[in-house]
Amino acid sequence: MSGFDDGVMVGETKMQANVLFKEAQITERVASLAQEIAADYASRGGLHTVTVLNGALHFASQLRFAISKANPELGFEMTSDTIHLASYHGTGSSGEVKKISDLTHPVTGKHVLILEDIVDTGKTLSVLVAELLAQKPASLAVVVLLRKPSKLAVPESDLGEKMYVGFDIGPEFVVGHCFDYDGRFRDVPDIYALSPAE
Ligand code: IMP
C-alpha cells in the first residue's frame, strides 16, 4: 500500500502516482555512488560537501554516511556546509533562484561536492555552481539523486567539472523520498512519478 493507490490531489487536479524507484533500490544506488565518490576523493585528501536545502537533506545524510563507510581505512577528512535555495513552485520551475540562507564558510581551496536532489532545467544548480566557482574551490563536482536530461536548459559545462547521477529519468514530476510537491510527500519512502489520472 503506498497511500497513493486512489491517486493524489495536486491542487485541483487528480494525479496518478506510479512507483519509479523502491526505497531498497535507492539505498543500493546511493551505496554504489558512495563507493565511486570515496575512490575518486581518496587521493585528494579531503571532501567538502555543500548540501542544497531543503530537498537534498535526506539524500545528503544517506550519501555522507555511505561515503564514510565506503572509505573507513583511508578516512579522508569530510566537512560539510549547507545552503538553502528556493526555485520551485508547484510542478513547474519558476526559473528564479532565491537564496533563503547562505553557506557558513567560503569554499575557497576546498574539494567541493554539491549534494542536490534533482536536476530539472539545471538553472538552480548553474547559479550555485557559478557562485561557488567565484570563491575559487580546489575542485567542484556535483552529485544528484535524479536527473531529467530531456529538460536540461543550460550547458552541461555550467554544472561543474563532474556530475555523479543516481538515476536518469524522463520529464515527469516526481514525489517521495525527499521530493516534494509544495512541501508534501518528502517522507514517503519510494519515489513516484505523477501523471494526470485518466
Ligand atoms: P531546476 O532549477 O529546474 O533544475 O530545478 C531544480 C529544483 O526544482 C530542485 O532542486 C527541486 O527542488 C525542484 N524539482 C525539479 N523537478 C522536481 C520534481 O520532479 N519533483 C520535485 N521537485 C522538483
- Strand portion, in percent? 35-45%
Counting DSSP H or I runs of 4 or more residues, the number of helices is: 3
For the residues shown, what is the average pLDDT?
Answer: 89
Overall 3D form:
globular
Helical content, roughly?
Answer: 10-25%
Distance between the termini: 21 Å
Main sheet summary: 6 strands, mixed
Strand order of the largest sheet: 5-4-3-6-7-8
Note the quaternary state here: single chain
Taking pLDDT < 50 over at least 5 consecutive residues as the criterion, the unreliable ranges are none
Q: What molecules are bound to this protein?
A: inosinic acid
Helix vs. strand class: alpha/beta
**Cα radius of gyration in angstroms:** 17 Å
Number of DSSP-assigned strands: 10
Q: Secondary-structure element sequence?
A: EEHEHEEEHEEEE
Element layout with pairings:
Layout: E1 8-10, E2 13-21, H1 23-42, E3 46-53, H2 57-70, E4 77-89, E5 92-101, E6 111-119, H3 123-133, E7 139-147, E8 163-168, E9 173-175, E10 191-196
Parallel strand pairs: 3-4, 3-6, 6-7, 7-8
Antiparallel strand pairs: 1-2, 2-10, 4-5, 9-10
Helix pairs in contact: 1-2
The chain binds inosinic acid.
Inosinic acid (IMP) binds at residues 55, 87-88, 93, 116-125, 173-174, 179-180.
